[in-house]
Design goal:
The protein has helices at 78-89, 109-119, 135-139, 157-164, 168-173, 197-204, 209-216, 220-232, 242-249, 266-280, 292-298, 313-323, 358-369, 377-383, 399-403, 418-426, 437-452, 458-473; strands at 2-7, 32-35, 69-74, 96-102, 127-131, 183-185, 192-196, 257-258, 261-262, 308-311, 331-334, 345-349. It is α/β, with parallel strands linked by helices. It has 2 domains: 2-188 and 344-399, Periplasmic binding protein-like II (D-Maltodextrin-Binding Protein, domain 2); 192-340 and 410-473, 3-Layer(aba) Sandwich (D-Maltodextrin-Binding Protein, domain 2).
């Protein structure tokens, strides 16, 4: 199975695809292409060895295959590893793969994917991945016409969604304007509040998730009251304002664009005031997410001990677990002040792809996104058994699968995360996203930080936000 890995120079390590949103959008130089071999437990992006010796002359050459080839495009090796694992589990699957991985680093993936979709031909993607930061472009926006509805692949998608109990936000995001479902995720990214049990006990005498969720919510007034009580005991409720931004942004009634004009939903505008409260009252350590001080707060070594973080299961598994240090195992999760989702990867099929591989495309997409059996990707993903026992357990888009899976984690002191993440998915919404969110969110966060730090008035921050959006994206304000 051929892989093509494209690297942009200079390159740096990019966190897992579900949660990196700060990649730039500027045009980039031509990527460098290298063909390499990868295995499911050896991430291709990290294992390039350009000086590896050539195979010995007497090594047998791989047997030529007459199988039709499915072209798969992704921004990490996660989805490619899944399809290769499917081939291992189903050796009679009569297709081979040509895999192209282009990192989202410095905005390289989308322009390359767009070019490949427009060019068509034998090298065009048959399956392509899109993450939440830009998925709306491919499911509902400028590039949505390239996507083939799942129903046209022969998948009874509406019935399968109901049977699997796929979270509503997941298929809302993947539904095109004509009502056709053109993209579905495999991972659930509904969010929870992830908190330290020891701080809860010290402040309120309980670490029970049901009691804590009623202390920190519902709503942000209760959350700020809890923050004041924590501060009296020397604790910050969150590390920085970014920790509350995701639940605020992803629960608002409206998105950034309404009737082709910039719109600031009242819930999102309130983020200005909540961020200022966090700063003025030392309810946070004023960190920025994805920076070293943010990670340090997960280990409890920041200026003030931090009570909690907001996030989906991937934040626990792939960020907090590796940065928790001595706090590992003393965490728990509860429902947040309001429902939200954060991150995720959606899979799409190209309407202009190779018709000879369409049945194989359908088989793969159904196995990854809709199969609820114990042989399906989602069951193995949820139980950490895709590549054998002992893997990382993760949340999946099917509520049915999570309900019959073991979600206990040592990080959570044995708590079953699915008890919280199943309703988290049900409480999230996908109706407030736009294809320009990635760019607009960056502009908004910059202006909120300036206001919270006292460097701008509230009025100037709002005015500058509107002007910068117009200057960069041509979107006028309502």
């Amino acid at each position: 199975m051929k892989r093509k890995l494209f690297l942009v120079i200079p390159a740096f390590f990019v966190a897992l695809c579900c949660f990196v949103f700060f990649a730039g959008c500027a045009a980039q130089p031509e990527p460098v292409q290298q063909e390499i071999a990868g295995t499911p437990d050896e991430p291709v992006a990290a294992d390039i060895q350009p000086d590896d010796p050539a195979p010995a002359e007497d090594d047998p050459a791989p047997a030529a295959s007459d199988n039709p080839v499915i072209n798969i495009w992704s921004f990490t090796d996660e989805v490619p590893n899944m399809v290769e694992r499917y081939k291992e589990l189903n050796p009679d699957f009569p297709y081979d793969f040509n895999i192209t991985i282009i990192s989202t680093t410095e905005g390289a993936y989308q322009p390359a994917l767009d070019q490949a979709l427009m060019a068509g031909g034998a090298g065009a993607p048959d399956i392509y991945a899109a993450e939440s930061a830009f998925v709306l472009k491919y499911t509902q926006g400028d590039a949505a016409h390239f996507a083939m509805p799942y129903s046209e692949l022969g998948i009874n998608v509406d019935a399968a969604i109901q049977t699997a109990q796929i979270a509503t936000y997941a298929y809302e995001i993947g539904t095109r304007g004509d009502g056709e479902i053109v993209g579905l995720p495999f991972q659930a990214t509904g969010g929870a509040f992830i908190y330290r049990r020891s701080i809860a006990m010290s402040t309120w005498g309980t670490d029970d998730p049901e009691e804590i969720q009623n202390i920190i919510g519902p709503g942000w007034d209760n959350f700020m009251q809890a923050a004041a009580e924590l501060q009296e005991n020397g604790y910050a409720i969150v590390s920085g304002d970014g920790d509350i931004w995701h639940p605020i942004r992803n629960s608002s009634e409206q998105g950034w664009i309404v009737d082709d004009m910039l719109y600031i939903d009242p819930d999102r505008e309130r983020f200005l005031d909540l961020s200022r409260q966090l700063t003025d009252n030392r309810f946070s350590n004023e960190t920025e997410d994805w920076q070293e001080p943010w990670f340090a707060d997960m280990a409890g070594i920041g200026p003030q001990p931090v009570f909690g973080f907001f996030g989906p299961a991937w934040l626990i598994n792939y960020v907090m677990s590796g940065n928790a240090g001595d706090t590992y195992g003393e965490w728990a999760i509860c429902e947040p002040p309001n429902g939200f989702s954060w991150g995720g990867t959606w899979l799409l099929a190209n309407a202009n792809g190779n018709p000879e591989v369409r049945n194989g495309v359908a088989e793969l997409l159904e196995w990854i996104t809709l199969d609820t059996s114990e042989d399906g990707l989602q069951y193995m993903w949820a139980n950490g058994t895709l590549f054998g026992p002992g893997g990382t357990k993760d949340t999946v888009s099917s509520g049915v699968v999570m309900a019959k899976s073991d979600g206990t984690l040592d990080f959570l002191d044995g708590q079953n995360m699915f008890d919280i993440f199943i309703p988290a998915g049900e409480n999230a919404t996908g109706r407030n996203m736009t294809q320009h969110d990635e760019s607009i969110n960056i502009i908004w966060r910059d202006q909120v930080r300036a206001y919270a730090a006292g460097n701008k008035s509230r009025e100037d921050a709002l005015a500058d936000f509107r002007q910068i959006v117009y200057d960069n994206l041509g979107i006028p304000s309502s």
